[in-house]
Amino acid sequence: MISPYGMEIVESCLTCKLRADRIFCDLQPSALQAFDNIKYPTAYPEGAVLFVQGQEPRGIFVLCKGNVKLSISATNGKTMIVKIAEPGEVLGLSATVSGRPYEVTAETIDPCQVNFVKRKDFLRFLIDDVQVCFKVAEQLSEKYHNACSELCSLGLSHSAAEKLAKLLLEWSTKNGSSGKQESRLKVRLTQEEIAQMIGTSRETVTRLFAEMKKCQIIQSKGSTLVIRNPAVLREIANHN
Predict the structure, then answer these.
(1) Which end of the chain is more exposed for a tag (fewer CB within 10 A), N or C?
(2) Taking every pair of C-alpha atoms in the chain, what is the biggest distance, in angstroms?
């Protein structure tokens, strides 16, 4: 079925071609059928808010297609993007399990398909199936590991240039282009949002991009960013 946003909706988890590659979705057929019975598949446009930081947990959101921006806001109004969630991730998982408020705000950055499961239904789902409990523990462990890696990679960097270089290299690796002389990335974030990811100002990101273009390290063509010299980018990222 095609949604109003030009995206094909996967009605059943049992027929999803991507589930074998996802930690949470790779369940036994009986568990998938039980999950199908309690989920609410929904298509969201770009810019839709799934849940808000501090909101009481309504349930989990399994991201099937598209990307979601996860951010934290301080009382002084400053915002930091902590992650760009990809298909297969379960959003709001720790809050739903613990019963504590959502730690982040989740907002779509392109059209998305999301399977929502109410908290009470999800907790019952966990109680009824040991394998599902293991998958949830595995996903929570992966989230913790990734959070620590992000903290080491970006939080302990000495300069904004290092942080930006590491972010671009990370995107390149996820795109499967880390070993190539030149790689192309589809950048969905604004420079303001990139600044929020590395904890700096938009003006600093603008200046760094301009310097990298001048040195022919990167080149931009619309929303496509071309990394022309990944070796130099790695030198910047590893500079101490």
Answers:
(1) C
(2) 59
- Predicted TM-score (pTM) of this structure: 0.80
Q: What is the pLDDT of residues 84-142, one digit of tens each?
A: 998 888 999 999 999 999 999 999 999 999 999 999 999 999 999 888 888 888 888 88
Closest among 73, 137, 136 to 106, alpha carbons compared: 73
Closest CA to 132 of 35, 39, 41, 58: 35
CATH class of 13-155: mainly beta
Q: Say if residue 154's pLDDT is above 80.
A: no
Domain locations in the chain as residue ranges: 13-155, 160-237
Contact 52, 102 (CB under 8 A): yes
From the options 3.30.2280.10, 1.10.10.10, 3.40.50.2300, 3.20.20.140, give the CATH code of 160-237: 1.10.10.10
79-85 and 68-73 as β-strands: parallel, antiparallel, unpaired?
antiparallel
